[in-house]
Write a structure and sequence with these properties.
- The structure is a homodimer of 388-residue chains.
- By secondary structure, chain A is an alpha/beta fold.
- The first copy, chain A, folds into 2 domains: 172 residues, Rossmann fold (3-Layer(aba) Sandwich), CATH 3.40.50; 197 residues, Dehydroquinate synthase-like - alpha domain (Dehydroquinate synthase-like, alpha domain), CATH 1.20.1090.10.
- Chain A contains 15 helices and 8 strands.
- Chain A is globular.
- Chain A starts with a strand and ends with a helix.
- The model of chain A has no long low-confidence stretch (mean pLDDT 96).
- At the A-B interface, strand 1, helix 8 and helix 9 of A face strand 1, helix 8 and helix 9 of B.
- Strand 1 of chain A pairs antiparallel with strand 1 of chain B, so a sheet runs across the interface.
- Chains A, B: This is NADH-dependent alcohol dehydrogenase.
- Chains A, B: Keywords: Oxidoreductase.
- Chains A, B: Its cofactor is Fe cation.
- Chains A, B: It holds the Pfam family ADH_Fe_C.
């Protein structure tokens, strides 16, 4: 641990079977009008919508609704919400759903009272937020992004074919988030494993950077191990409460800024996936899995000791009688085997990409430099070609 | 992970070589008068006192001083500080030192405006805090207690021969804590290993409870491993910045409530040590080490699977061809060997206890029930007898 850092995460988490009971008390800190923000029909068919509306009514809140937030939330949807907030003087945006809904809520929070073009200002130029911020809170129903306890907001600009992630400061973090693992029982296996891989990818993006010894790396390993062990249980029994709760909490901890402290961090896989997602609308976790394997095989030799540690610590690869390269590659083979075991889709073809998209995806990918190797656009394209 | 929990930790951490530079900005959130609270001469001889005074002066603060806070801070010292706070209308208590100084500052924070007997009310009857709370902040110079990011406050009532710990709610947590690993370079080896064992004991108190699979247990294992690996480096080179910084951050994370979430937790070792400390004034971490080994050997069979996991995961004990008992006990032997390797004192005689104290220590020990076995007073005495 060498780099200086500041750590401050004031999101309040209510976790467990009875966590929704905390909503009433939390609401008393906010004004009269709540904008309920959600996706398509899932929360209506499982009864959560009715429960939340009932609590809001009992608390005497006026409710405005923004529904239909899509998996990769668009700037258009965000602006629809921003207008609703202004028109109704909304005092709390309550996101009920997964990361997309919460990301969208944060985008609305900073955009409602922004007098310039918010997308240009916040997601292209990454400017600071100076205008009024509307408080956000969340009730989580899908697991993976960690958006329930951070400032991240990934928004897709359809017209520009550009999916951009932005980390906002703590004022934009959810004030509170309610996490009930039971809400995730009905999430499909496809979405569950996509979410788990998203969690694991967040962890690996932080892990595969820097030399030296860092408590953050030990923490990351522990969350990777817990993710792997618990998804195996949940694949067998999707209603195993313990497994689903560990999966849920792992996802939150994997991206609440804790595990990346003092590290430069990589995030190149996410940069490539964002553009892949902008062109294909694929499930985020599946896109990450597709890109991860060729990416790590391409760069591992630049951070060989960390990939050896990954192989032995996470996958139990025995180092005896093997070269570092052999150990590292065996670890990546184990990761690939795990994606197959979970039914994670790693073929770009199946995810809706065509080969002619690749140059455009590669060209529009942001190149970072925090990991073990700074890629060129040609290398990005080469990695994408190996995903077919 | 089965138990519901709420998690909310709004302490802001500034960590690293240049972290003291953050003090000036933080001070702007508070009123005119700061009470600088510290121990004996350490911060004067290493120059930190002058640096802090200079920043306070430049920020235009009036400074009141409470010095001489002792290793096991007394109620008498706390009341001296409480009077200073009232008499000077102090708006921020800035603790510069280790856990004792910060614990004392929190005690002062809740006691200054308490109209009853604060010790009776808060540390004996564990009542809620209804009176005004004075904000606390810290600059950490000794590592181990985790007091820099939690609500814990352990106070010793000399007259009553009673050392009592209390966890206050988030309003009493330090508003910000500044952690510079370089401040710990001059801490003696004795104090360093005592602090590391304190960290490890916090982790083990949380770990050795419950059945089942819990992300918190994985997190605990990661911090135990990091503690063991890094103290070995620091024993060899006390000025290894990386090792000292990992040791420092491990201590904070081990007791900022994160790693115990969803667990019942044990804390019986701390209860015994508190009374041992009340009678001997021994270094907290050394007292914990002395009690831990006979305690865990006494109770391990009631939580055998967890002790097996401890042996294999933390100490690399090979399970092949061994019974669970053999594996578990081999893990505890490894823990004992580690205490010897670090020069940790585990003999009660060396820590200043005499055999005639034991019945009184045992009788006054609070018995909890969160771990694998609820002790009787006779068992506590038996454990203490084995520490000679």
């Amino acid at each position: 641990m060498q780099l200086d850092f500041s750590y401050y995460n004031p999101t309040k988490i209510h976790f467990g079977k009875d966590s929704l009971a905390k909503l009433k008390d939390e609401l008393s800190d906010y004004g009269d009008t709540v904008m309920l923000t959600y996706g398509r029909n899932a929360i209506k068919s499982n009864g959560l919508y009715d429960q939340v509306i009932s609590i809001l009514n009992k608390a005497g809140k006026k409710v405005v609704e923004l529904s239909g937030v899509m998996p990769n939330p668009t700037y258009e949807k965000l602006m629809e919400g921003a207008k609703l907030v202004r028109d109704n003087d909304v005092s709390l945006i309550l996101a009920v759903g997964g990361g997309s809904v919460i990301d969208c809520a944060k985008g609305i929070s900073v955009s409602a009272y922004c007098e310039e073009d918010p997308f240009q200002k916040y997601w292209v130029e990454f400017q600071d937020v100076a205008n009024k911020i509307v408080p956000v809170a969340s009730i989580l129903t899908m697991v993976g992004t960690g958006s329930e306890m951070n400032g991240g907001s990934v928004i897709t600009h359809d017209e520009m074919k550009y999916k951009a992630g932005r980390v906002f400061p703590v004022d934009v973090y959810p004030k509170f988030s309610i996490l009930n693992p039971e809400y995730t029982f009905t999430v499909s296996q496809y979405q569950m494993v996509s979410g788990v891989f998203d969690t694991m990818s967040h962890l690996m993006e932080q892990y595969f950077s820097d030399e030296g010894v860092n408590t953050s790396d030990y923490l990351i390993e522990s969350l990777l191990k817990s993710s792997i062990a618990n998804v195996r249980v949940a694949l067998n029994d999707p209603k195993d409460y313990e497994a689903r709760s560990n999966i849920m909490w792992n996802a939150t901890l994997a991206l609440n800024t804790l595990t990346g402290l003092s590290k430069t961090q990589d995030w190149q896989v996410h940069m490539i996936e964002h553009q892949l997602g902008a062109y294909t609308d694929c499930a985020h976790g599946m896109g990450l899995a597709a890109v991860s394997l060729p990416y790590y095989r391409h760069i591992y030799s630049n951070g060989i000791d960390k990939f050896v540690r990954f192989a032995t610590e996470i996958w139990g690869v025995s180092p005896e009688g093997k070269t570092k390269d052999e150990i590292a590659l065996e670890g990546l083979d184990a990761l690939e085997q795990f994606t197959k075991e979970c039914g994670i889709v790693t073929s770009l073809e199946e995810l809706g990409a065509t080969k002619d998209m690749l140059p455009k995806i590669a060209e529009s990918t942001i190149i970072l430099g925090g990991g073990y190797k700074k890629l060129t656009t040609e290398e990005v394209q080469g990695i994408l070609e190996e995903c077919f």
